[in-house]
């Protein structure tokens, strides 16, 4: 306890020394004893070292300055003030390396080397009908690339002499060549490498930015490719006029020779074309091409590729153009099919030949039928397809030469009463029957009050009667009963993708626009009872079991489909579409938009689904033309002959010469013949002759019972 007692806390009134006092255990703190000999030394302070103090203060100031500089924003000068040269050199090198790698990455993304191996223009594509008859040929004429190692020197030397004399000595950009071209006016200011960079990777715009990119890509090409590789790619892609791209295509076109066999004068003329291919085209301006060739030969003499004596002996080359393109470059069908055909085609120098779904006989028939219709100033469009979606004929207007605008695939017009098919199909799927009745009285309340054609009404109609007579008030009432969402859902399931507004009762009368191709495809889905049907121009491969399982397809119940076809037959046989009646089972619907702006008939018979539209491009009203008039007659005229044509047989030749030849098909007895532009026509039937006119609610019939006047059901 004595040990711990030494550490006990002393009270404030307890003495520090003597008996019972508190003593520290450390020697330095024991009580002073006068008997000790120890005498403490006096405390002294050393003299301050002011130099050390100044040094330390200077270091402190420097530290404060560095800290303030470090905290200063990087865009202010204070952030960089006082930096040492080593600091600047290190960061400059790092910035240069970073810019280099960024430039390489940018060029690798925007200008891959493989692109210089591809043709700069889409190769020529020939579209064939299903029987092998060519229908259109479009695209550039390109051929296999050339290799400089396989070409004689007299073939490559003219291009080097006139385009880039120092090609094998510069690094992509030639200042001397630019100066010489500016001073003499001969030779190109851009090197061959720059030209390859320009037409392979860049646009033809004349800007400083484009020129800078051109120079950068030229340096890059020189770094990664040999000179012969650059020259080979240049000669394989350059444009020589007459739609010919590449030396091989040009030599075969102008001289009917392979580039490896070109004569010196022929090579010199081809080299002269590059500056202005259209201006120096030898097939059109031979004198200009010859003068340009003489300039090329003079450049070859100046460089030393040939002597003046050799140049004087060169004869004028003889043009030998043998290939003639008698196939049209475009048709309504080809303009629609070509972009589809090019999808998925790999970049290639080889020509492409693609067989389409077009039936040459049906196409000729469609052109002939529409051309003899009394259209006046109006336009016409016709689409014929199989229930599978294979388009076999297409007419996009009266004349492709006058107007290549395709009114079958590009024009979005109101379908009119042909849209009622979606309304009635939605009703049948909802449980309605063709024998169910619906009010046919005038709608006199609400914000939307449609009227029937000729304002004919009745108390009630069955659905079949309402559809056949194309009652507008009945269609709107039915639309409101089943709901716009159900109608739109039905249209979407049949493949309609155009906007369809919800809650708008006018939709029942076809006020929403769509293309004739889209509308006809929907009717094809009804014909096949398998939808949606995708209209296509290229034969589709037979789908495998996986595609069959994963591709969603819909169909309506057998009862609903049978009921819809019953109503479609009623519309064409005793309703508004009687002018389209055929001697076989036929189904269809007429359509006429407000103020007679559009007239349509869409229907099917046998294995053909056909849509016909008549209207004006400026959307002005027609001369009271209805869907049951001229479009129905065109439809019937086409179908009666089309269903009797034999199936097309593929040709043994994959690419026969010559365009589609129109087939001569005689006008058969019994078909309807237009008598004028006012819609008057005469129809020969088995039991008599019928005279009718668009917009007139009666027709005149002459048969064994004499002369009769019959009232027509309103055509809508």
UniProtKB/TrEMBL annotation:
A GO term, aspect molecular function:
penicillin binding
Q: Where is the composition biased (Acidic residues)?
A: 665-675
Q: Which residues form the Penicillin-binding protein transpeptidase domain?
A: 383-639
Q: Give every Glycosyl transferase family domain span.
A: 140-300
One Gene Ontology term of the biological-process aspect is: peptidoglycan biosynthetic process
Where would you find the membrane-spanning parts of this chain? 88-109
Which Pfam families does the entry link to?
Transgly, Transpeptidase
Keywords from UniProt, A to Z, are: Carboxypeptidase, Cell shape, Cell wall biogenesis/degradation, Hydrolase, Membrane, Multifunctional enzyme, Peptidoglycan synthesis, Protease, Transferase, Transmembrane, Transmembrane helix
The metabolic or biological pathway listed in the UniProt record of this protein is:
Cell wall biogenesis; peptidoglycan biosynthesis
**Region ranges (Disordered):** 1-24, 644-679
Pull one GO CC term from this UniProt entry. Answer: outer membrane-bounded periplasmic space
Which reactions appear under catalytic activity for this entry?
Answer: Preferential cleavage: (Ac)2-L-Lys-D-Ala-|-D-Ala. Also transpeptidation of peptidyl-alanyl moieties that are N-acyl substituents of D-alanine; [GlcNAc-(1->4)-Mur2Ac(oyl-L-Ala-gamma-D-Glu-L-Lys-D-Ala-D-Ala)](n)-di-trans,octa-cis-undecaprenyl diphosphate + beta-D-GlcNAc-(1->4)-Mur2Ac(oyl-L-Ala-gamma-D-Glu-L-Lys-D-Ala-D-Ala)-di-trans,octa-cis-undecaprenyl diphosphate = [GlcNAc-(1->4)-Mur2Ac(oyl-L-Ala-gamma-D-Glu-L-Lys-D-Ala-D-Ala)](n+1)-di-trans,octa-cis-undecaprenyl diphosphate + di-trans,octa-cis-undecaprenyl diphosphate + H(+)
Record carries keyword Hydrolase: yes
Provide ranges: composition bias, Pro residues: 647-659
What family does this belong to? In the N-terminal section; belongs to the glycosyltransferase 51 family. In the C-terminal section; belongs to the transpeptidase family.
- Know the name of this protein? Transglycosylase domain-containing protein
Q: Supply the source organism for this entry.
A: Erythrobacter crassostreae
């Amino acid at each position: 306890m004595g040990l711990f007692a030494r550490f006990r806390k002393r009270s404030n009134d307890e003495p520090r020394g003597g008996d019972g006092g508190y003593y520290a255990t450390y020697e330095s703190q024991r009580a002073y004893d006068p008997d000790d000999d120890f005498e403490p030394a006096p405390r002294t302070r050393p003299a301050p070292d002011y130099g050390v103090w100044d040094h330390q203060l200077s270091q402190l100031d420097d530290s404060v300055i560095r800290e303030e500089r470090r905290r200063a924003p990087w865009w202010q000068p204070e952030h960089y003030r006082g930096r040492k040269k080593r600091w600047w050199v290190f960061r400059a090198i790092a910035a240069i390396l970073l810019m280099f790698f960024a430039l390489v990455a940018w060029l690798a993304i925007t200008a891959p080397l493989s692109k210089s191996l591809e043709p700069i223009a889409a190769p020529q594509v020939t579209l064939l009908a299903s029987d092998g008859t060519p229908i259109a040929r479009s695209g550039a004429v390109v051929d296999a690339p050339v290799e400089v190692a396989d070409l004689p020197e007299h073939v490559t030397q003219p291009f080097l002499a006139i385009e880039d004399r120092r090609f094998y000595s510069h690094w992509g950009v030639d200042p001397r060549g630019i100066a010489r071209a500016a001073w003499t006016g001969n030779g190109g200011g851009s090197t061959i490498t720059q030209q390859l960079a320009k037409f392979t990777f860049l646009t033809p715009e004349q800007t400083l930015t484009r020129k800078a990119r051109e120079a950068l890509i030229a340096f890059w090409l020189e770094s990664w490719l040999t000179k012969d590789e650059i020259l080979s790619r240049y000669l394989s892609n350059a444009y020589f006029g007459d739609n010919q791209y590449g030396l091989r295509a040009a030599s075969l076109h102008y001289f009917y020779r392979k580039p490896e066999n070109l004569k010196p004068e022929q090579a010199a003329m081809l080299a002269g074309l590059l500056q202005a291919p259209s201006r120096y085209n030898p097939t059109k301006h031979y004198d200009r091409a010859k003068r340009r060739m003489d300039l090329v030969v003079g450049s070859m003499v100046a460089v030393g590729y040939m002597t003046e004596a050799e140049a004087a002996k060169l004869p004028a080359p003889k043009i030998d153009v043998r290939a003639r393109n008698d196939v049209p470059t475009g048709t309504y069908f080809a303009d629609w099919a070509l972009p589809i055909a090019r999808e998925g085609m790999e970049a290639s120098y080889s020509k492409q030949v693609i067989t389409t779904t077009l039936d040459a006989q049906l196409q000729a028939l469609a052109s002939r039928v529409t051309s003899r219709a009394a259209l006046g100033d109006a336009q016409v469009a016709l689409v014929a397809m199989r229930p599978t979606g294979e388009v076999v004929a297409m007419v996009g207007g009266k004349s492709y030469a006058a107007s290549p605008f395709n009114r079958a695939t590009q024009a979005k017009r109101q379908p009119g009463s042909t849209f009622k098919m979606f309304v009635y199909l939605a009703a049948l799927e909802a449980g309605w029957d063709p024998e169910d009745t619906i009010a046919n009285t005038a709608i006199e309340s609400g914000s939307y009050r449609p009227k029937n054609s000729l304002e004919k009404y009745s108390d009630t109609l069955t659905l079949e009667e309402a559809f056949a007579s194309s009652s507008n008030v009945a269609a709107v009432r039915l639309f409101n009963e089943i709901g716009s969402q159900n109608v739109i859902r039905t249209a979407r399931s049949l493949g309609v993708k155009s906007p369809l507004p919800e809650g708008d009762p006018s939709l029942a009368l076809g006020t929403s626009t769509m293309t004739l191709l889209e509308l006809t495809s929907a009717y094809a889905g009804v014909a096949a009872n398998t939808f949606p049907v995708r209209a296509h121009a290229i034969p589709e491969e037979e789908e495998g079991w996986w595609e069959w399982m994963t591709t969603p397809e819909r169909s309506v119940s057998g009862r609903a489909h049978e009921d819809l076809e019953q109503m479609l037959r009623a519309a064409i046989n005793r309703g508004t579409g009687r002018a389209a009646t055929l001697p076989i089972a036929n189904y269809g619907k007429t359509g006429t938009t407000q103020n007679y702006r559009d007239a349509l008939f869409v229907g099917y018979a046998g294995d053909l689904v056909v849509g016909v539209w008549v209207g004006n491009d400026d959307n002005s009203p027609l001369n009271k033309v209805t869907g049951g008039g001229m479009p129905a007659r065109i439809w019937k005229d086409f179908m009666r002959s089309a269903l009797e044509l034999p199936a097309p047989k593929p040709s043994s030749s994959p690419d026969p010469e010559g365009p589609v030849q129109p087939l001569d098909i005689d006008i058969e007895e019994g078909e309807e013949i237009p008598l004028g532009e006012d819609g008057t026509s005469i129809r020969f039937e088995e039991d008599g002759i019928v005279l009718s006119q668009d917009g007139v609610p009666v027709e005149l019939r002459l048969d064994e019972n004499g002369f009769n006047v019959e009232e027509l059901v309103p055509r809508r």
